[in-house]
C-alpha cells in the first residue's frame, strides 16, 4: 500500500483469493483508502469489490451476493486461458449468461507477463455493447508480484471513499489507463471532444481512435486532442488513445440510452 501511495493512488481495492483480509489497519498506516473484497476464482474470475467475507456459489450467485452486501462486481480478464495448476477460466457461455455486474476488465497487464491468453479484451466489450448490454471498461493491475504494480488503473471522478467509488463506477464516471491522463472530455450536442497528456512523459502525437458498434473504427486522428461529430445514428462511441511510447487510455462510451440495458439493474 505504501508503494501504491508513492505511485499516486488514492484508493486501492484489496481482493484476495480463498481467504479474507480486513485492511483497516493497513489503510491507516499507509494513508491510502483501501476497499476490502475478494476475487472469485472457482470460474476465474469475478472481482467482488466491497464485501466483508469469502463468498461461495456459482458465478451468478456470487454476483447476487455481492449486490446484497452493497458491493459491486467486475468480470476479470475475459481472454485469460486456463493452464495446468491454475484455476479454470470462466467459459464464455457462462460469461454471456451473467447479469448484475457493472463492467469487465478490458486491460489486465498481468496476463501479458507470463500467462496464457490476452490481457486486452476490448473486443468482448464491443461485443456486449453492440448487443445493447451497458457495461463499463476497467483497467486493473491484478497485482501478484512487484512488476505488476502500477501498470493499469482507473481514474475515478469521486471522493476517495468506497461510497464515492461505487457511485462513480456505477454511473461510468471514470476511465481506464496505462499511462495517459484525460485532460478534457465533453459531449456538446453531437460534438465529442477530448484531450490527453502523459504526465511526466514527453509525448509525440497521440493516436485517437473513435470506436463504434461491432468495434468499427469510425475515425482516427493524431495530436494531443481530437474531436468527432456524431450523426445521431450511432449506438455508442468510445475512444481509445495511444501515445508513441505505448501508454493507452480508454474512455467509457457515450451511447443511445433508449437502446441499452445496464447489466447491473
What do these coordinates show?
By secondary structure, this protein is an alpha+beta fold. The protein has six helices and 18 strands. β1 (11-16), α2 (24-30) and β2 form a beta-alpha-beta unit. The chain is globular. The model has no long low-confidence stretch (mean pLDDT 94).
Quick recap:
With 265 residues, the chain is an alpha+beta fold. Helix content is 18%, strand content 33%. Strands 8, 9, 12, 13, 15, 16 and 17 form a seven-stranded antiparallel beta sheet that branches.
What is the general shape?
globular
- Which class do the helix and strand fractions yield? alpha+beta
How far is the first residue's CA from the last residue's CA? Answer: 33 Å
Q: Which regions are unreliable across 5 or more consecutive residues at pLDDT < 50? A: none
- C-alpha-based Rg, rounded: 18 Å
Beta-strand residue percentage: 25-35%
Number of strands: 18
Arithmetic mean of pLDDT: 94
Key terms:
265 residues; alpha+beta; 7-stranded antiparallel β-sheet; 6 helices
Layout of helices and strands:
Elements: H1 2-6, E1 11-16, H2 24-30, E2 33-40, E3 46-49, H3 59-68, E4 72-75, H4 92-97, E5 103-107, H5 122-130, E6 133-134, E7 136-139, E8 153-156, H6 162-171, E9 174-177, E10 181-188, E11 191-197, E12 206-211, E13 217-223, E14 225-229, E15 236-242, E16 248-250, E17 254-255, E18 261-262
Parallel strand pairs: 1-2, 4-5, 5-7, 6-18
Antiparallel strand pairs: 2-3, 3-4, 8-9, 9-16, 10-11, 11-14, 12-13, 12-15, 15-16, 15-17
Amino acid at each position: 500500500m505504501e508503494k501504491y501511495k508513492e505511485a499516486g493512488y488514492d484508493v486501492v481495492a484489496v481482493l484476495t483469493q480463498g481467504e479474507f483480509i480486513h485492511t483497516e489497519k493497513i489503510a491507516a498506516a499507509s494513508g491510502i483508502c483501501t476497499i476490502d473484497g475478494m476475487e472469485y476464482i472457482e470460474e476465474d474470475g469475478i472481482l467482488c469489490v466491497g464485501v466483508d467475507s469469502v463468498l461461495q456459489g456459482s458465478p451468478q450467485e456470487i454476483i447476487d451476493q455481492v449486490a446484497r452486501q452493497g458491493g459491486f462486481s467486475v468480470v476479470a480478464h475475459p481472454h485469460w486461458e486456463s493452464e495446468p495448476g491454475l484455476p479454470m477460466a470462466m467459459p464464455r457461455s457462462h460469461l454471456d449468461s451473467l447479469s448484475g455486474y457493472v463492467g469487465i476488465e478490458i486491460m489486465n497487464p498481468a496476463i501479458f507477463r507470463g500467462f496464457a491468453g490476452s490481457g486486452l479484451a476490448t473486443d468482448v466489450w464491443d461485443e456486449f455493447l453492440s448487443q445493447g448490454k451497458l457495461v463499463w471498461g476497467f483497467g486493473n493491475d491484478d497485482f501478484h508480484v512487484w512488476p505488476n504494480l502500477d501498470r493499469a488503473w482507473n481514474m475515478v471522478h469521486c471522493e476517495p471513499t468506497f461510497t464515492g467509488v461505487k457511485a462513480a463506477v456505477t454511473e461510468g464516471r471514470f476511465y481506464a489507463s496505462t499511462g495517459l491522463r484525460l485532460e478534457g472530455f465533453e459531449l456538446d450536442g453531437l460534438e465529442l471532444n477530448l484531450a490527453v497528456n502523459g504526465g511526466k512523459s514527453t509525448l509525440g502525437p497521440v493516436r485517437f481512435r473513435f470506436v463504434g458498434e461491432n468495434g468499427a473504427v469510425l475515425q482516427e486522428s493524431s495530436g494531443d486532442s481530437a474531436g468527432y461529430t456524431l450523426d445521431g445514428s450511432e449506438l455508442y462511441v468510445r475512444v481509445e488513445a495511444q501515445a508513441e511510447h505505448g501508454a493507452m487510455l480508454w474512455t467509457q462510451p457515450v451511447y443511445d440510452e433508449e437502446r441499452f440495458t445496464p447489466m447491473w439493474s
